[in-house]
Amino acid sequence: MHAAATWTGRSAPRRWPRGPAWGFAAAGVLAAPAAAADAHAPAAPADAPADDLRTVQIAALEVRGAEQTPADRILESLAAEGLRAGSALLWPEDARIQRARARLLATDLFERVTLRLRPTAADPSRVTLTVEVEERSSLAVTDLYLGTSQFTPFRGGLQVVERNFLGRALQIGGGFVWGSMPRHAPRGRRQQAFRLHLAAPRLRGTKFGLAGTIYVHSASEPYRIAGREDDPDPALFRTVDYGRIGGILGSTFNVGNHLVFGLDYRFERVNALLPAAPVYTAPDGAAAPIDLELRGGVHRLTSFNFGLNYDGREEAARFGKGARIALELQLSSPLVGSEYEFIKLVAGGAYSFRLPWGHWITPSVVAGQIAGRAPRFERFFAGDLSDWTPGRELGLIYTTRSPVDVFGTGIDRRVLGSLFARLDLEYVWPLFVRNRVRGIKAGYLLWSTGIFTFAGDADERARRRAAGEWAAPLGFNANFGLRLETVIGAVDLTVGNVLQRTPL
Predict the structure, then answer these.
(1) Which of 23, 47, 232, 430 is the most exposed place for a label (fewest CB within 10 A)?
(2) How far apart are the first and last CA of the chain?
(3) Please, are residues 195 and 211 in contact by the beta-carbon 8 Å criterion?
(4) Is residue 100 part of a domain?
(5) For residue 6, what pLDDT is reported?
(6) What is the pTM of this model?
(7) Per the structure, how many domains does the chain have?
């Protein structure tokens, strides 16, 4: 189960990043029928000629349909666009009405928003502005973790978020993931992680938002000591154990209703228990030292993170026609108190098109690169790029499975990397967009395919080129299945989802 959330980040998104700087979410690209974009546009009186533009005055404002959200919060959004009692506007349609509707939809609190103008009986030059809303369920399950692997017999967990806490558009959420003891791994320990998040996307009457996150990770990640690169046998692995305790404090600035800038500061304490001089023994008997990409002992990781998220869809809080662009830049250096020094950049974009027969097609691209020596939990992970391989779950790796090498390029030889790119094309067939079953709002058939590349640092790419191999090998993805929009989030019943959970 997955629904869009702005605070559950991964080091490498499965699709493309989105959200403020305090955490980019992995989000698949899905579009709803075009009718959703136009059916609830601001309504003007039926008897008003389209070319009869004149100035009228707002005599009163009404809010209908709001049960969880206080009416004054809705009126604040209207006031931000200059729509309040006594304000003048153009009849029958004023651009500020459309902007106010977009602002309300961008809060992610409402399924539908309709604004209507109604002249008063006593004076046609005075109107009542009525806001009709249909609220979304404020409680959502953003991620559900459940699976098994040869390395970890069982793992499970979830993440939830309340998007309208106390009716004040505050977001509070948390999550956990828990795994059983690793199989056939000496000194391995149980992997578990916990996270708590609080955010105010828009402080009252301003364009600024604040957020904070605290988290605790206990990791026991596998690394290979022998065998072929594609052999998942747990006996060929040992574990690197480390703990992380940290937090993120961030702020956002909303530019209009479509563009958000974010800046945050991350701080954490890392305690790593590294084995002495680990060595990998190849099938031909050759031995080579292993770089676990982590400092030993107790140390600090701090960073400044900058984020940009543009959502130009017709209904930003929902799916629809339009473009999305996201960028995240992370800087860690001794200058900001860190014992690591690296720069990490991830950027992505997508555009959804509606086809003449009502289906949707969405090309998307995402790429990232790391300069410097980032710790292993900040490196790009192969599972986050492959639809058929389990990705990180709250930052933890529970599997020894490598990506399927469809093209025979050697993509399965790398687990962690410093460079990646992914190109996807998704096709969506809407089945229904109204409640057919209680709790299910819409259903879609989806099909996607794409390619990705995944590589190490510049020195490694040079060695591969010298050996006549792909410096940045290609991998292939494909997925097919059903997506259901429910009152608590989106549920994917797809081939790729099944393969990620199956211990192959």
Answers:
(1) 47
(2) 21
(3) no
(4) no
(5) 29
(6) 0.83
(7) 1
Question: What is the pLDDT at residue 436?
Answer: 57
Give the Å distances, CA to CA, from 118 to 82, 84, 93, 101, 311: 18, 15, 12, 17, 32
Q: Report pLDDT digits (tens) over 441-460.
A: 889 999 999 999 999 988 88
Give Cα separations from 22 to 10, 107, 192, 249, 465 (angstroms): 11, 17, 21, 7, 37
User: What type of residue is 286?
Assistant: A
Task: Say if 222 falls within a structural domain.
Answer: yes
Q: Where are the alpha helices (DSSP H) in 133-258?
A: none
Supply the range of the domain harboring residue 154: 17-34+140-414
Q: In sequence order, what DSSP letters do the residues of 34-94 get, joined into one string?
A: THHHHTTPPB--TTS-TT--EEEEEEEEEEES-SSS-HHHHHHHHHHTT-STT-EEEES--
Residue 46 is predicted with a pLDDT of: 40
How would residue 17 be classed by pLDDT, with cut points 50, 70 and 90?
very low
Task: Find residue 146's DSSP bridge partners.
Answer: 156
Q: 26-30, 182-186, 212-216 — which one is most confidently predicted on average?
A: 212-216
Say how many CA atoms lie within 13 Å of 224 toward its Cβ: 23
Beta pairing, strands 126-135 & 54-64: parallel
